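Before drawing any conclusions, I looked closely at one protein, both as residues and as discrete backbone shape codes, quoted below without any editing:
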Amino acid sequence: MEEDIIFNIDVMLAKRKMSVTELSKKVGITIANISILKNGKAKAIKVSTLAKLCEALDCQPGDLLEYRKKDKDEK
């Protein structure tokens, strides 16, 4: 099943010229967990983690999260 919420962490990392390793250190979560978010495999995210990501990347939650409607065939 396709996910409705897409994490655009790669986009923000590129805009901020920041590495995954640097983000991991600033936010205090493992590189593996950032990869899970980046790859769309995460089932949930704590609001506190989202806030830390926003602080580290100097962005708003909407810069990181994107909602995509599913195709009609998938509903």
Q: What stands out?
A: Helices lie at 9-16, 20-27, 31-38, 47-57, 61-64. The chain is about 50% helix and 10% strand. The first strand starts at residue 5 and ends at 7. The mean pLDDT is 90.
